[in-house]
Structures are given as structure tokens and as C-alpha cells.
Amino acid sequence: MNSSKAVVILKVGKVGFIIRLVCWDEFYTELQQDCKLFIFIVGVFCLFRIGFIAVMHSFLSEAVTVSDIVSALYYGLRISLKSAGMLVLVPLVCCTGLRLFLPWKGLSHIRFYLGAGYVTILSFLFHARIPYYQEFRMAFNQLLFNTLNDDVMAIMHTVVEQYNLSVRLLLAGITAFLLCKLLQRWLAVKTIRFPRLPKWYQNIALRAALLVVIFYVAIFIRFGGTMTYAYNIDWENSGVTKDQLLNEAILDDVQALYRAYVLHERVCSSTGLDMEPARLNDYGSYLAGKQVNSVNLDDFLRKKVIVGTESPPRQVFLIIAESYANWPLLPQYSNLAIAGGMKELIAQEDAAYVPNFLPNGMSTISGVMGVLTGLAEANLYLNYLPESYKEPYATALAPQMKRLGYTADCWYAGPASWEKIKDFTLAQGFESFYGMGDFASQGGNVWGVDDADLYQAVLGQVKNDKPGFHVIITVSNHSPFTVDLAKEGFDPAIVTAGLPDKCKNDQELIKKLGHFWYADKMLAKFVKKARQQYPDSLFVIVGDHADRVNVETNPAMFERYAIPLIVYGKNISKETFPEQTAGSHINVIPTLLELVAPSGFEYYSVGRSLTDGNDFGMNYGFWITSGYMGNADNDYKETHLSKTGLLPPDQDKIRQEIDSARAISWWRIKYGKMLQTVKSI
């Protein structure tokens, strides 16, 4: 027998099979090729990581040090060991593994084709990651999986118009071509022959040692540069630096896509919720503020208006403003004149403003769902679930306003098909819906008409012959940012005067801020005209989400995520909300009902009214009070607008508030109103 080969002959009946079990020289050669491919892919990950940090360096905070960058590169290398190991596993099996049994040398070509495919995909992902981060401040997230539910053509138009798709595709193609040529040369480098020792038992020991080394190297790669799971690194614990960009750079594109997939699966299956179904009665009783014994979940959400009014407004306008963040209203940004309309409105005697306010989710649809249904974000797309179309939720806003004698209509600047918004709003009690196809417009883009045209349509159609409740959802302050700002009177100088020096020549940022200015201006203009046209009216204004545009590359948590809540008009004064009020979208419904309903009116909501001194807000990932904001799923918190003597809420209150709102909302959306303890997640 050849010392480097073993052959087994099996005979079954008259047919003989020759099984080529091991050829150590070939096995060792193929293994080296896999190692070279592994090293190359790790190198590509590291190259793209460095490139991402270099291209996006303007997003680095000023506090970033060389040590932070080195840490990001180190932890990025570790997590990329796992990604490269996963990718190389396929050629390891298909080439090295099959070569043990098949003498066909063409198997080696499969390795190059697989490697070239990997490199090509990674090149295109790298060039896609840059605009994705600019938009979402993340290197791919679960919103990728909602693309097919969204307006695909609108997304494509946005990408083409705003992000120079053809140029990016060309750059990605050139990058992929150069890397594939480099890979071809790298794999052509000669390999080392497997050593031969004089004694047979020495050769056996050497081969056994090789297998042991392979085993431990596999463990080292599997756990990201460590030999034990206790020090394993993955996408959930890789955010080790104090900088958002660096933390995202640590994740290579494979890990970022894996994170997006896991979060999407949590959305689909709700495994991301930290709740115990057996405690639903306790959760409901906490929200009710008293012990409730019932199998009907809605019984836990029943409330009564405390003060109310006997002179309700005749017209009620609820405006959900696209990307209207709270930070432009803060004193430190007073030199950035993009929110003058709302600042002037807030200064009115019959206006009240809550700065300590959070959106329901990270996207427009999450915010709209939270405002219209009053249900907390619970890792479910309720606009696609059957329960939402059986009947309106007891907490839904439109039916409760209709019980007060209002007609209910919804105005959306975009297409009626977006996120099934028309079907959903009508199913949830609105009597009529108007989308971009229902009114004329000379501007706009694939996402919808310009705000001016939307507001004009509302003013032209709303009649004052009977009480009306009108929800208005805008889109102009959204990429691809196509409003003709010059025509609207925007002077870039009013923005650049308030920008830090490093941003004064950033035309893209100025353009985005100009659209905020436009949205603010059109909103203020609408409120003024509507108040003149309908003097006996109430306006509730809230952003759908923030976290899209900010002057700071790494803003504080409050500046990044908070949105404003502004109420103006009949029955409103500066004392409408207590000084330390805080809340989120789920508090809009009870607050509005307290402002328009008579005392004792019975309604349903998960949240509490802000008029009643509610001092805590929560959403999909954060909580907020008048002095603090923190992460909903860990102990991290930051101070904001702090005043002497304010203390953060204790952890028990935070967990009770968040778990109760999430759990009850989750069950109501997933299973309906009846509680059945035999059900499980």
C-alpha cells in the first residue's frame, strides 16, 4: 500500500466498487487552497471595513480616537472570521471533501468560481451599504425584508435619483473585477507538499495532529477568535465602541444581513418580545391601574375621561409629519432656522408642546399604526395581519371619535397602495381615505405629492357643516428630496449660518435641511389657514419618526430619536400639559379624547393621557422621561434637558411600563381580544 493513499474495495454480488478514501497529498493541497480562500475573504472584509470608515469618516464623532478605530478593526476582524468561515465551508465540503472520494481535479475550479461569486456579491453589498447607512444609520437592518411590502417602484426611483445608482453599479463592478483577478493570482500561488516522515506511525501521528489542529481552528473561527462561547462575538454584542459608525463598521455585510434576517424573523414570529403569556392578567391590571379579572383583554384597557370638555372643537386635525424630529426645536439649534413655523406656533397662548416624546417605531408605518390604533410596537406588522381586518381594535382612534359625533377621514400624500394604508384605515373605522391619486399636484415624486398640494386638497374639501376628524400624513420631508426649494423661497444661507464649519459646504445636508424647512413652513401655513377657515378647531401635530437627518454625526439619544407633540387651538393653554410630561405615540389617543370628549366618556387605550400627568414614554427600543432617556432592553441611559432634583425612573417601573404595553399590544394583535392561558408564544 502506498504510504499516502488508502483504497478500499467493496464487492456486492458481482459488482465491485473501488472507494478512494484518502489521498493525503491531495487532501493537504486542497486544504491549503481553502485556507488561502479563507484568508482572502477575511482580507476583503477588512479592506471594505477600512474603506467604509474612510468614506464615511464625516459621520465619526469628534470624540473618536485612534484607539477606538483600532478596536473597531480588531473586533471587526474577529467577527469576520466567522463570516469567512461560513462562506468557505461550502468549498471545503464541495472541493476538499469530495476530493477525498473523487480524483477529478476540476473540483478545484469550483473553489475559484465560488470565491469569485462571494467577492462579487460583497463588492456590490459594500457599495450599497454606504447610501443605506446615510439613510438609516445602520449597515442593513430588518427594513430590507419589508421592501416587497412597500412600493418597490418608488424605492427604485429613490435609489436611482438620490444615490447615483448607475455610478455605484459601475464602481461595484470594477471593484469585483479587480478582486476576482487578485483572487485568481492568489489561488495560483504554489502550495506546500504534505511532509513524509520515515516511520509509518510517525506519519499516522502527524496526520492525526493535523486533524486535531483543524478541529481547534474551526472552533477558533466559529467563536470569532476565541476558544470558548463565553467570549464569543456576534452582532448582538459587537457594539464595543462609543461611536455609532464604528459599531456598524465592525459588522461586515454578511453579519449585517444576518442581523437583518434575525430581526425580521423576530418580527414575523414575535420571538423578540420578553413577555410571559401567563402574566397577561398582571400586565393588563398594571395598565388599568387596578386589579381586573376578565378573559376579555379590552376590559383592561377601558378608561374614562377625567376632566374633558362640554364645548368640543368642531374640526379636529391630526397631522403626522414625515421625519419631523424634535431636535430643530431645541435651543442649541436656534441659529439653524428650519423650524420657525412650529416655534412660532408653540409660542401662541393657545398652544402646548411636549418635547419629551417618542415615535412608536423606526419607520413611518410603525408611527402611523401607533397613532391610529394606540397599540405599542410589538414586533408585528399589524397592517398585514388578519386580526386588523376583522373589526376595528377597541383602542382604534377613528371609531372612538365617531362615537363623539365626528366624521373620520384620512389624507395621505402618497399612493393608497403603500403598506395597504387605504385598506387598513378603512378597516379601522375611517369613513373615507384620500391618496395622491385623489387630488391634483404639479410636484412631488414617487412617494407622493408635495405638502403644499396635500394641504390645499384638505382645505378645499373639508366642510364645516358637521364635526370632522381629519388625519393628514405628509411625505415631502423624505428622500429623494425633490421639492423645488428655490421656487419655494428657500435661502441656503439661513441654514449654513447655523451649521458648524465642517458642514457648511455639505450640499446634500443643506438640501435635506431645506426640505425640513419646507415641511415646517407648509405645516405652519396650513394651520394658520385652517384656523381662519375653521375657527372652532383643534390641531394635534406629531412627527412619525426621527433618526434620519441631524447636524451632528453622532447625536445624543434624545436628539436622535425624540419627536415633538404640539397641540393648538380650542381648549388649549400652556397649562394643558404638566411640566414633566413625557410620552409616545400610544399616548396620542387618550390625550386627544381628553381634549374633545365630555367628562366620563368611556374609551379604550393602552397609553394614558398626557393631560393627566403621564411622565413616562416608551417605544420599540427606548424609554423617556422629562430628564432622562434610555434603552428599553438594557440599563443604558442618558440625561437630557435635566433639571435640578430630577431622578431617573427605577428599573422596576421601566420594566413594568414596557413589558405591560408590549405584551398586551402583542396579544391583542396576534390573537385577538380573548385571553386564553393555554396559548403560548
TrEMBL record:
GO terms for molecular function: phosphatidylglycerol-membrane-oligosaccharide glycerophosphotransferase activity. Keywords: Cell membrane, Membrane, Transferase, Transmembrane, Transmembrane helix. It comes from the Bacteria. InterPro entries: Alkaline_phosphatase_core_sf (IPR017850), OpgB/LTA_synthase_biosynth (IPR050448), Sulfatase_N (IPR000917). Gene3D superfamilies: Alkaline Phosphatase, subunit A. Its main location: membrane. It is an enzyme of class 2 (transferase). Pfam families: Sulfatase. Pathway: Cell wall biogenesis; lipoteichoic acid biosynthesis. The chain crosses the membrane at residues 37-59, 79-100, 112-130, 165-183, 204-223. One of its GO terms (cellular component) is plasma membrane. It is a multi-pass membrane protein. It is found in: Cell membrane. SUPFAM superfamilies: Alkaline phosphatase-like. Residues 316-596 form the Sulfatase N-terminal domain. The keyword Acetylation does not apply. Its EC number is 2.7.8.20. This is Phosphoglycerol transferase I.
